[in-house]
Amino acid sequence: MGFELSQPVQLGGEFADEASRVLRASFDDRLPSLAGLHTPEEDSWFFRNRVFRDCSVWGVFERDLLVGIVAFPPAWIDQLYVLPTHQGRGVGASLLNVARTGASDLSLWTFQRNREAQRFYEKHGFIAVEETDGSRNEEKEPDVLYRWLA
């Protein structure tokens, strides 16, 4: 039997390590061929020094475990990750709703191979507006730009 999930709460930089673990678990689950691209220390550094500095970061907890995060500057979703064990339970939708609050326009990138993410965003009203060959991203992985308008 599962535990109750919290409502999304805004996170401070003290959650950088936990947030980076959510990213890595989700990323590696969906794109195993890219697993190990960064070390846990590099992921934590990125969250501490970039994500928490430049974005509003929100999370959902199950008891004391951070199970999903969203990070967004205005008009953009920079990060949205949910632990694989918690996907399909409304965590991503509740985090997406936080990012949409007060926004009239949001964009984000996801990888073309991540069909589950594409289905999720399309289910929530995002439309694919551009596809690339991946030459402009760090992973060199073909991606797709999504946009949502209120």
Question: Could you explain the architecture of this structure?
Answer:
This protein has helices at residues 16-30, 40-54, 91-100, 115-123, and strands at residues 9-10, 56-62, 65-72, 79-82, 105-111, 127-132, 143-149. The protein has 4 helices and 7 strands. Strand 3 and strand 4 form a beta hairpin.
Uncertain runs are none
Query: Mean pLDDT across all residues, rounded?
Result: 95
Q: What's the number of helices? A: 4
Structural class: alpha+beta
What is the share of helical residues?
Answer: 25-40%
Radius of gyration: 15 Å
Order of helices and strands: EHHEEEHEHEE
Given the C-alpha coordinates, what overall shape results? globular
Proportion of strand residues? 25-35%
Counting DSSP E segments of at least 2 residues, the number of strands comes to: 7
Distance between the termini: 37 Å
Largest sheet: 4 strands, antiparallel
- Sheet with most strands: strand arrangement: 1-2-3-4
List the topology elements:
Layout: E1 9-10, H1 16-30, H2 40-54, E2 56-62, E3 65-72, E4 79-82, H3 91-100, E5 105-111, H4 115-123, E6 127-132, E7 143-149
Antiparallel strand pairs: 1-2, 2-3, 3-4, 5-7, 6-7
Helix pairs in contact: 1-2
Sum up the structure in keywords:
150 residues; alpha+beta; four-stranded antiparallel β-sheet; three-stranded antiparallel β-sheet; 7 strands; 33% helix; globular
Summarize the structure.
The protein has helices at 16-30, 40-54, 91-100, 115-123, and strands at residues 9-10, 56-62, 65-72, 79-82, 105-111, 127-132, 143-149. It is an alpha+beta fold and 150 residues long. The longest helix is centred in the first third of the chain and has 15 residues, at 16-30.
